[in-house]
Design a protein that fits this description.
Helices cover about 50% and strands about 10% of the residues. Helix 4 (about 65-75) crosses helix 10. With about 350 residues, the chain is an alpha/beta fold. The model is unreliable at about 90-110 (pLDDT under 50). The structure holds guanosine-5'-triphosphate (GTP) and magnesium ion. Magnesium ion binds near residues 63, 64 and 149. Guanosine-5'-triphosphate binds near residues 59, 197 and 199.
C-alpha cells in the first residue's frame, strides 16, 4: 500500500465531487506525477466501473462536435457524465489550457458534464493505460458515464477497446479514402455506426456504403452461419447505422437511445461485468510489464550493465547477440527446466 498525504486529500475531495480535485487527479495521472500511484490505489479499490463509451472515427468527421450533444443528453436524473477527449496530436500539453472546463454544449456552466482534453505523451504504459486509469478516476468523482473521444489513427482506435464498453464509429461524407482505410478493422468492433454531416451532399451514399460494409463484415458472416443466437435465447447485437448532424443535434436522440439499448443488452447478457473483468485484466498485465521493466532497469543500472554492454561491443570478440545473452543471464538467470516428477520407489 502506497500512502501519500496529498493523494489522500485529493481522493477525499474527488469523492466529494470537487471538479478541481478531478482536474488535479487527471493531471497527476497524465503526467505520472509522484502522488499518482497512491491515488490510483485508492481509486481502483473504491471506485466503480463507469459505462465507457468510445467515440472514434477519422479526423474531421465531427466527433468533437457530436460529443457535447451526446454528453448532455446522457446526463441528467442524477447521472453525471465525464468527457475525455484524447488528442495525441495536441500541441497543448497536460491540458493546461483546455482542461478544467465544465460546460455544456452551449458553453454554459454545467455541473453534470465534465470536459477534459488529454494530451497523451504515451508515457510508460501508453495511451490505453493512461485512459484506463482516467476513466476510473472520473468514476471516483461520481461520473457514471465516461465518453472517450479518440481520433481514428490505427492503433489508438483499437486501443480504445481496452477501456470501452460501447464503441461509436463516426464517419462523414466526403472524407474519402480515410474512411475506406479504417473500415476494415473498426467495422468489426463498432457497436453503433454514425454518418455525421448528414446535411452534406453524399450522406446517403455514405450511409449505404457503411451498411454494405457491415453486411460484408466477418461478424455478419458469423451470424449468418447460425451463430446468431446466444445461450439463453439472446441475439447478437446488430450495429445500427445512424445519420446525425452535429451542428444542430439532429439524430443525437436516436444515437443516445441505441447506446442505451446496447448497454442494456450488455448487462442482460452479463457482458458488462465480463468486459470490466477483461479491462482490469489487461490493465493488470500492462502494469505488470511496466513494473517489471522498471525493476529490470534498476537491476541493470545497479550492475553497471550499460557500461558492460558497451565494453562487450567495443571488445574484440564482438558477437553482439551472444554478449547480450550473457548479460541477460547475469540479471535474469533462466528458469530451471521443470524436472518431471520422479515416480516414488516403492519397496516391496
Ligand atoms: N456541415 C456540417 N459540419 C459539421 C458537422 N459536424 C461537424 N461539422 C464540422 O466539421 C468540422 C470538424 O468537426 P470536429 O467536431 O472538430 O471533428 P472531429 O472528428 O472531432 O475532428 P478531429 O478531432 O480533428 O479528429 C468542424 O468544422 C465542424 O464544425 C455537421 O453535422 N454538419
Ligand atoms: Mg475532435
Amino acid at each position: 500500500m502506497v500512502r501519500n498525504a496529498e493523494a489522500d486529500r485529493v481522493f477525499q475531495d474527488l469523492r466529494a465531487g470537487h471538479p478541481r480535485a478531478l482536474s488535479r487527479a487527471i493531471s497527476w495521472v497524465e503526467s505520472e506525477a509522484a502522488p499518482a500511484p497512491a491515488l490510483l490505489e485508492q481509486v481502483y479499490a473504491q471506485s466503480p466501473h463507469p459505462w465507457v463509451i468510445g467515440i472514434t472515427g477519422v479526423g474531421g468527421a465531427g466527433k468533437s462536435s457530436l460529443v457535447p450533444h451526446l454528453a448532455r443528453r446522457l446526463a441528467g436524473n442524477g447521472v453525471r457524465v465525464a468527457v475525455l477527449a484524447v488528442d495525441p496530436s495536441s500541441p497543448i500539453t497536460g491540458g493546461a489550457l483546455l482542461g478544467d472546463r465544465i460546460r455544456d454544449a452551449a458553453g454554459e456552466q454545467h455541473a453534470r458534464v465534465f470536459f477534459r482534453s488529454i494530451a497523451t505523451r504515451g508515457g510508460q504504459g501508453g495511451l490505453a493505460t493512461c485512459v484506463a486509469d482516467l476513466v476510473r478516476v472520473a468514476a471516483a468523482a461520481g461520473h457514471e458515464i465516461v465518453l472517450v473521444e479518440t481520433v481514428g489513427a490505427g492503433q489508438s482506435e483499437l486501443g480504445i477497446l481496452q477501456v470501452a464498453h460501447s464503441l461509436v464509429l463516426v464517419n462523414a461524407p466526403g472524407l474519402g479514402d480515410d474512411v475506406q482505410a479504417q473500415k476494415a478493422g473498426v467495422m468489426e468492433v463498432a457497436d453503433v455506426l454514425v454518418v455525421n454531416k448528414a446535411d452534406r451532399p453524399g450522406a446517403d451514399d455514405a450511409l449505404a456504403s457503411l451498411q454494405q460494409a457491415l453486411l460484408l463484415s466477418e461478424r455478419e458472416a458469423h451470424m449468418r452461419e447460425g451463430l446468431n443466437e446466444l445461450p439463453g435465447g439472446d441475439l447478437h447485437w446488430h450495429p445500427p447505422v445512424l445519420a446525425t448532424v452535429a451542428l444542430t443535434g439532429q439524430g443525437v436522440d436516436e444515437l443516445c437511445a441505441r447506446l442505451r439499448e446496447h448497454r442494456e443488452v450488455l448487462e442482460r447478457q452479463g457482458r458488462f461485468a465480463a468486459l470490466n473483468r477483461l479491462h482490469d485484466l489487461r490493465r493488470m498485465q500492462s502494469y505488470f510489464r511496466e513494473v517489471a521493466q522498471r525493476r529490470l532497469q534498476e537491476r541493470m543500472d545497479a550492475l553497471g550493465l550499460a557500461q558492460r554492454l558497451q565494453a562487450e561491443l567495443d571488445g574484440e570478440h564482438g558477437d553482439p547477440l551472444a554478449a547480450a545473452r550473457q548479460l541477460v543471464d547475469a540479471v535474469l538467470p533462466p528458469a530451471p527446466a521443470a524436472t518431471p516428477e520422479q515416480p516414488k520407489e516403492t519397496r516391496p
